[in-house]
Fold each of these.
Amino acid sequence: MFYQSIAEYYDFIFPPSEKQRAFIEQELSGLERKTLLEAGCGTGNLASLLSEKGADVTGIDLDKEMILKAKTKVPANGRITFENLNILEIDQRWAKETFDGVVSFGNTLVHLKDKKQVLQFLKGCFMVLKPGGKLLVQIINYDRILDNEINALPTIDNEKISFERFYDYGPGDNHIDFRTILTVKESNTVMRNVVSLLPVRQKDLKCLFEETGFEKMRVFGGFGGNGLTSDSIPLVFSAMKPV
């Protein structure tokens, strides 16, 4: 699997982000004593930042290697739990109105097969959220990618790794292939991967949120709270379950 192969180097590719933590804290009006679910937690970096601010966090990921690495970061205060779980099984795992917030960053959503599965995920989040709870989702701004036929994202490069990212298009815009080349500089090891993604456009995602029952939707072009533009690389959604 794609993420299993890069799990060992994931923290060098996607290090902890204080901007993400601050965005969540602002959207939820604080983190102290909040119960949060992170869908697609990777190696647990964001969950760790959230727990440091007083939140009780459950992180789930489909990849076992990611969860194994995440479990090494569980603090002594016990505010984090990690589970190997499909994000489509949220409503089977937890009771109604369990969480104050559900977070899904890192382009997790577009690894689902189709819009039917996206709707299934949103409905699961809706069910486990408390009234007034928020769902926060971040994906790539695929309107920008598709409209401009962009075939690459900026390379992530640091002293440990180089991570090259490309898009290969098929007919239509139902799916695109995400092709990556990870180079580990110390050993000069090269890992190549291809994974199929569902490039969800903003208007389609908005319709799915509305169909689920969410309200007070807001769209951002980054975690700084800036508005979405045609040049924005990320697409960030915030939506609330009605009180």
Note: The chain has two domains: 2-141+200-240, 143-197.
Amino acid sequence: MPRVRLLLVIVLVAVSVLAGPAAAAQEFRVLQLNLCHSGVNTSCFNGAATLQEANAVIAAKQPHVASLNEICRNDLPQLAPAMGNGLSAFAPARRPDGTPVRCTNGDEYGNGLIFRSPAAGTVFSGQYATQDGGSEKRVYVCVEFADLVGCGTHLSTTGNVAMAQCKAAIALLRDRAVAGRQTFLAGDFNLKYAPLIGPDVQDCNAAPFFRKGDGSVQHVFAANLGYVRTEVTRMTYTDHPALLVVLTRP
């Protein structure tokens, strides 16, 4: 082998060794669950069996975060062990007079997030400016970490109101996403993708977000995260399937 070619091979090998393998992206699993656990809607309420099934799904899917709708505040500590007792956050839904909506057991009703990570984060929540004429003011709950911000929400059953709330939720997070922050928004949006009638959930999306859904009303919006796959799992003790969106963090 000519000396010049030999030297070139040695240099290339040395550079390869020094550089080492590229760091692999880490999976980040977002699990969205509407548990219908208030007891108010008797057509889908199944009591303790619902939480048992939710724990089984969490154990099987091993999410990094669970977004929970239609739960009671004290459901969180019953689900937290399956999530490694990471950081939990809860936002109670409110009546028009400002009092909390209650489950039939008297507990506060609303939305929750459970992160597998034990890292400290800042919790913030609120209700949307646009609401329907019903007895529940819709809310969002978020947790912001140093390198990630995530929110969960449950929107109005009135299509145009749900669309306004969806756009407001995206707007709430968009500055962070545009600045390059890893960002996600999960929930029951009561909006479908490409419906025959009513507003299209995709119309509330805005760059740099992308959306993945369960084929019905549950969706995950994400920005500055990679996408791997979506899994939809039928559930027996609630009226919504489990939606798992597998993302990657750089």
Note: The chain is about 20% helix and 30% strand.
